[in-house]
Amino acid sequence: MKTVRLKKGREASLQRRHPWVFSGAIETVEGNPQAGDVVRVVGSDRTLLGVGAWSPESQIRVRLLRFEDGAIDRDFLQVTLAAALAKRNSYLQDTDNNACRLVFGESDHLPGLIVDRYDDFLVCQFQFAGLEPWKTTLVELLAEQTGCRGILERSDTAARKREGLTGSEGTLWGDPAPEGVLIRENGLQFEVNITSGQKTGFYLDQAENRHLVRSYCRGRTVLNCFAYTGGFSLAALSAGATHVTSVDSSAPALTLLERNLQHNQLHDSRHQAIEARVGNLLRDWQAEGRRIDLVVLDPPKFAEQKSQVMKAARAYKDLALQAVKLINPGGYLVTFSCSGGIDLKLFQKITADAFLDADRDGEIVRYLHQGFDHPVALAFPESQYLKGLICRVND
Ligand code: SAH
Of the candidates 55, 72, 58, which has an alpha carbon nearest to the alpha carbon of residue 4? Predict the structure, then answer.
């Protein structure tokens, strides 16, 4: 039996059901496991801690799939997958929405696996060498359990590289994906380019927040920074914003945004799209003396690694500072960070510093979080990454 024995004193995190074994925690490796092989993980006294899969190239050598003895096989994966799907079933069945994340990696006990549903199509990312041998089985199970029309792979190349895997894209099962899939999200329709849009095509993690922000938009002017294909812009317009400006540096995203306005009969003079870098636009607007009632800041991840946290913190602070300067008294700043390394406490401090430097008084009226379909397993706090604040700008 292939077995990984931990160093003395390194058992605690696994006993707390955290699924990662780092290379530095390993005392001995028995049975010469190859990438993807199932291994038993035991403590220094050889007590069984769980069963996982081996990934020789990654700093995370083993990711556990179960915390008791037992096989990793089709039956086990079927039960694990069914549990993940069950968490999303009522959302998909009892609402009119037809898109959400079905599998969120470690939080759904399927390490490194992401599966997003867009109407009848699924988009997957496989970013863990240990699940690679199970790809065909998982795809068959997904097809069986969801009744989808087609399954597409769009794995993140950088993440796969860290696992010693090559990039991987293309149809895995069923019909080839059309370029555009129409999804319904809380009364709005979005065209999602699942073959070449960013990530798997759409930022599903913001669905609940797009809906929540609506209640602050009525009768207000809105500046949606990092708009992508218009998620927050359409939410604001449909909620009765008097004018919305959408800013993004990606021309293809803005083209899709225009189509999304049309899909929802919202293509009127209340909206303007600007292709620009947000930092430049905020400074230009300041120089022109422009003012706005509500600003959304939803930038891409600034800190990819722990070592970049301080630099990222400065970037978030500068962004919020430039935005707050534009906001009318009584208006709102809606600000997000999707960098896992920046926790809520730090993000709140960054935002407070921005208000202070702008010489404005503000208060937090709501804390925001990634959607329910991106659950945070209590045993795996690393899965918490998206945080946001709605701040009122008092004077
Ligand atoms: N809020 C969006 C998701 C934003 S993702 C939604 O709800 O769908 C981040 C976006 O920032 C991407 O569309 C990317 O093209 C854009 N982007 C990245 N750097 C930028 C910059 N410096 N200026 C403007 N847009 C930028």
Answer: 55
